[in-house]
Amino acid sequence: MPHCDQVTNASTPGNAGTVVVLTIALDGETPVLAAGRRYAEHAMVMSHQAFEPHVAVPRLLDLLAAYSVPATFFIPGFAAERSPAMVEAVLAAGHEVAHHSYSHRPPTSLSEADDRREFERGLEALDRFGITPAGYRAPMWSASWRTPELVREYGMIYDSSLMDDDKAYVLQTSHGDLAEIPPHWSLDDWEQYAYLPAPHLGYHINNPLAVSAMWTSELAATRRYGGTFVLTGHGFLSGRAGRIEGLRQFIESALEFGDVKFRNAYDVACAALSDVATERKKHERVDVDSAIYPDW
Amino acid sequence: MPHCDQVTNASTPGNAGTVVVLTIALDGETPVLAAGRRYAEHAMVMSHQAFEPHVAVPRLLDLLAAYSVPATFFIPGFAAERSPAMVEAVLAAGHEVAHHSYSHRPPTSLSEADDRREFERGLEALDRFGITPAGYRAPMWSASWRTPELVREYGMIYDSSLMDDDKAYVLQTSHGDLAEIPPHWSLDDWEQYAYLPAPHLGYHINNPLAVSAMWTSELAATRRYGGTFVLTGHGFLSGRAGRIEGLRQFIESALEFGDVKFRNAYDVACAALSDVATERKKHERVDVDSAIYPDW
Amino acid sequence: MPHCDQVTNASTPGNAGTVVVLTIALDGETPVLAAGRRYAEHAMVMSHQAFEPHVAVPRLLDLLAAYSVPATFFIPGFAAERSPAMVEAVLAAGHEVAHHSYSHRPPTSLSEADDRREFERGLEALDRFGITPAGYRAPMWSASWRTPELVREYGMIYDSSLMDDDKAYVLQTSHGDLAEIPPHWSLDDWEQYAYLPAPHLGYHINNPLAVSAMWTSELAATRRYGGTFVLTGHGFLSGRAGRIEGLRQFIESALEFGDVKFRNAYDVACAALSDVATERKKHERVDVDSAIYPDW
Amino acid sequence: MPHCDQVTNASTPGNAGTVVVLTIALDGETPVLAAGRRYAEHAMVMSHQAFEPHVAVPRLLDLLAAYSVPATFFIPGFAAERSPAMVEAVLAAGHEVAHHSYSHRPPTSLSEADDRREFERGLEALDRFGITPAGYRAPMWSASWRTPELVREYGMIYDSSLMDDDKAYVLQTSHGDLAEIPPHWSLDDWEQYAYLPAPHLGYHINNPLAVSAMWTSELAATRRYGGTFVLTGHGFLSGRAGRIEGLRQFIESALEFGDVKFRNAYDVACAALSDVATERKKHERVDVDSAIYPDW
């Protein structure tokens, strides 16, 4: 089970500054297959995803190395099995690999049994690389209420799927405390770059320089209000040449602020859990009156 | 029943300048639940909405305080019951709270009986905070012809759902006069920032600085043509750090014009009702020939 | 029947320069009712359209007067009947009014009998104002192959619905020659500004200053390649304050080119028909093999 | 069968610089008819496509001639048959014409028999112009796994439909080696300019100057990372005046880099095939467990 041996310096007192967490999903073919098994027959669609292990990941690792910036890679078990060399390369570069399900099917669409199987099969796939992941992110962030419970039950110490804050906090589950490292749609490359008509991943093609300018001003705002800046990328999207340049520009702008630190999710989780000043929350489910909201 | 004791200075003669009305909906989980009760099981979706009371509202109140700018908060009864501390904080900051239905289901989709229940249950929820709202806004602005009648019947003096003008006017109902404070899609943060795939709230993620620039030039146009500048925000959208900065930029630009005044909806309604120069309208329903428009 | 008495100077030889045709649809409630009669019950939707006769048209007429610029207004019969004062104001300002169907239902969705009834009822509605329209535009530009035939049969001399050119040309029908004044999606305000979820008119809210900059560079390109610059606006969209300012900016930029002339569609049609150098076309329908394109 | 007689200089050693391949689809009415035969009755929709042979192609050829830039035109057989003069004009200007199916129906939606018929009928249509195409691109890039096999079987030496790289590579099929010249959505004009509601081609209208700026920065990134810059245009989209100017601006910016060369797809294919340093790939189909991805 992952544990936090040394006090990390992600956000401990006396160590001011905003923390940026680069989280990069390496989904491979999984988001496409989760939309329909038939897409395995579509060579173009498969090739669109295969760009990731072959071209995108080496490029992303080079970029991170050039600026000595750590990242957390969320890799579904299916993608890890299909591209073991990719996983090895990420590990060799010293980055964190975390749990991102086995097949990229959203927990909200699964039975409890299937949900558990996804957790276990994903862990088994990572285990073959010697990885005991410290954290989890739900596919499409589609966590159910069961999700944080399972994350803790299966021995992980953080989740990164929920959006009720923009600062890492401690979530109290029936299995113990968990750090929540909250993502958001506005800091995700999918909403900027995903373009695929069938399956419909999105109709987004933005100028990477405009995206990097937007994220930089978002980071400036985070510096003003405090919080954990959790950026989400996807290998098959952000590994394209122009988008790598956009990411480079963002990293350079972030470093130019002078007080911005890049940390992986594990370090941020440990810092949040060990800091008594971190907010502690319990989730309260909404009690819904079926007379008022009758539609299922 | 709300009444206008003192002549307000929102747009009285001899008091030139353009009036900006900041209207902020605090919908909480209601727009999501109105799209389907099943979303109560989606922890991420619920957390996406829960950002509002916990993080967004304090931030919005701080921003308004920093510029001494009043706002009108439209709060569905369900959201008020779920986050009483949020309502108290808005009241403590001296802002207006107005009626925004109970459950955020659009009047156009409700029977007359359900529509009345929504009005009453929403009023009851606000009454528990000692609030007698002066005005109403339909969820998603989806007013039916019954809506202005109900607003006046239930003792409110303004509505803010209709778009046939860009200047506050007096609407004559069978229960008496009502001020209409017209909103518009182009001055709403939803169309700029709402991104949620399921339920589908929108696919919008614009750069807050571009949004503030657009709204500032819209305000410049309103200064030229006259009118009431009714801006609409939503806590869970505009309370994010970067968007708060966009709103700050808009407020600063508005104040820099020198002749722009911020007023809440109540003040604008009283000024409109008490000013004989305000346009008086009666709505004429369209008489539709079913031979020409056969489809229901 | 409309005829061209005097040689117009829209694009006659020796009269160089690019011609801009401002075409403005005043659809009123028709596009919404054509999407479903039930929307007549939606007060907000109806008010969204009612902005046009009450606020937008006076503002548009003022703008055109300020720059002495002519325009062609396409008005469905239903909208003319509902807002006679609006039609009178357009006529009093000296602008052309042209045929835009009766109910804004697309010809491609109508039987031949209904198509004819639309043509006739639209003509009757305009006739009550003493208007004998010189031209026609199909609702949503959705012309069928029957459309140009009907336009000529009913005595009009131009159509403005087809997109196979960006220069006015002569279309030979079985009833005689017709001028075609081609519009295009890229020069239409609908694709920039239409935002209404139900009925779904679009999700477009662009910055009017960006729109005017885009149209200005499109006009610069038309000056380079030749052609007729046919801009399409809609009262309920472009009559909003910020968009009026966008349109003003476009008009000013166009006039600054020095060699750009504004003409109405009638003048352009007469010039095209009387100029032997105008291209003459006959439409050739596509002969489609149902073995290759089996789906209807 | 096409062969590569002379060593081309597209990307041979000692010949540094980035290669731009301008690929232009001349689809005519085919994408619209493939969406439904009924659209043959829609005069506006047909005219929207008819802009291509009559106006767009001459303009595109002039532009290419002005900068002495070669291009590869992908023309479906149906479009070639309908506009023979267009094909002749492309050939007379010295450009490459390549295979783009017969009817623009995607291979992924066809039976093997229909897929073969499309290949053959498309080849026959081009053969009437004396064209033996060297390469193929699937309609909508919707290649199936059968596609590269068929391309090689029918004697062509390159495909341009797959996205697993951004550099031309060699794809090993059971019929021999093939060059793959990979396109991408982000370098396609469809995602910038296609606007047609029915059939729904897209809702895209971007400013051509913004598009050219984006593509120029993408090209700058390709210069940094290496790769083949494959730009895709469509006659009926990019032949509009403003977009031609956007394309001109891109070409000028590309030439200003000093080390960018324009080559047609044939030259790039020959260079890739003859260069031992070119990456060789075999596609590995994904083995999908139907227990995990049960939905078809």
TrEMBL record, chains A, B, C, D:
<feature type="domain" description="NodB homology">
    <location>
        <begin position="43"/>
        <end position="263"/>
    </location>
</feature>
<dbReference type="InterPro" id="IPR002509">
    <property type="entry name" value="NODB_dom"/>
</dbReference>
<dbReference type="InterPro" id="IPR011330">
    <property type="entry name" value="Glyco_hydro/deAcase_b/a-brl"/>
</dbReference>
<dbReference type="Pfam" id="PF01522">
    <property type="entry name" value="Polysacc_deac_1"/>
</dbReference>
<protein>
    <submittedName>
        <fullName>Polysaccharide deacetylase</fullName>
    </submittedName>
</protein>
